[in-house]
Structures are given as C-alpha cells and as structure tokens.
Amino acid sequence: MEWVIAEGLTAYEDAVIEMEARAAAIAAGQAAERVWLVEHPPLYTAGTSAREHDLIAPVRFPVFKTGRGGQFTYHGPGQRVAYVMLDLSRRKPDLRAFVHALEAWIIETLFAFNIRGERREGRVGVWVSRPEKGAGIEDKIAAIGIRVRRWVSFHGISINVEPRLSHYDGIVPCGVKGHGVTSLADLGWPVTMPELDAALRVAFEEVFGETRFA
Fold first, then answer.
1. Percent of the chain scored above 70 by pLDDT?
2. Rounded Cα–Cα distance for residues 19 and 168 (Å)
3. Nearest CA to 126 among 146, 148, 147, 104?
4. Arithmetic mean of pLDDT, 53-59
5. What distance in Å separates the CA atoms of residue 164 and residue 184, rounded to the nearest whole number?
6. Which of 133, 150, 154, 182: disulfide with 137, CB 3.0–4.6 Å?
7. What is the per-residue pLDDT for 149?
8. Please, which residues have CB within 8 angstroms of residue 213's CB and are 6 or more apart in sequence?
9. Residue 92: band (very low, low, confident or very high) from pLDDT cuts 50, 70, 90
10. One of 174, 176, 184, 196 is an active-site residue; which one?
C-alpha cells in the first residue's frame, strides 16, 4: 500500500477526481492501494444522508455534495483528512467490519497521545468524554465517511488536530445534536501534523498492514 502525504492545501474537487481515478485503477488491477493524507481549505461536504436543515450557514463556505456516506461535515486547515483507497475484496468484503477497522485505526492513533477515543452505538466516528464540561458530555474528535465501488473504498476519515472549531457552527456535524466537536489542541495536546501523521501510519499498519512511501 502506498502512503502519500500532500503538501499544502488540496482543493476538494481535485481530491475527488484523484480518488475516483485511483479507485477505478485499483479495481482494474492497474494501481496499488493508497492512503492519501491531505488538508483542505475551509468547506462543508454533504454526504448521501445529508438533510438540508442541518446546513445552518449555506453561504459561509463552499458546500460540496459528495457520494460518501453520512451527513454534513467540515474540512479545513488544521484537520487531517486521510483518504483510504483499499481493495476490500482482498481482505473482508464487509462494510460494517471496514468501518469498525477505521474506528480502531483512529482510536489507536489517539492513544499514542494519551487520548481515549471511543465508539458510540448509533454514532459513526470517534468520541471523547468531557467530564470537565459536565456529566455525560461527549465531543466528536474524528469523523468517518466512505464510499465503496467494486469493493474498492474511497473517501475516508478526518481527525481534528487544530482547526478553528467555530467553523463547525455553520452545520449540524454528522446530523448529531446535543454533542460538541473537539480537537487535539482543544484537549490540551499541541500536536503537529507530522507527529499525527507518524502516529497514523504506525496505527494503520497495525490494523491494515504494511505501507510504503510512494
């Protein structure tokens, strides 16, 4: 599997074109699997289950309708997006198991920084408890939204390192009300993007197998 880290900010439209082309090539046996780490300029994306009333500020940032699963989410500087293009037919062609593996990847990555990420029934993504805010308060630190075509995955995950959390105010993130959004910096961990990338790669290889820099 190739491990690729993009420099600077990647336009969302370009990322989608690149992902779809790579996924098709993987399905045709013409390209290697790839994990592609990017940052985007500020934008909102609407997944296949997005509801219009969850877009609170429709003119704040560009809004892209996308074929991934899920609802509205935010991408922007300070957030690591990892696009995962894997041939699931070579592993276990089970979408639920794949999402579970992605969650395990995120949880193992966060554990490297002494952050306890957790799954929640009925809420895709990874959450952290915030007892200092009150009993039962939880914030989302990582999101998951995937698409699979011919058993090749694309789209992927995002982890908040140090984005402007106020940018989430323009949407109901992932359609979940009553919970907040957090980041490594918000939790008191001033982690650099290269530090997160290193932890992501170690955890990915534990869950999915060996990678190589492209």
1. 100
2. 25
3. 104
4. 95
5. 12
6. 133
7. 96
8. 2, 3, 4
9. confident
10. 174
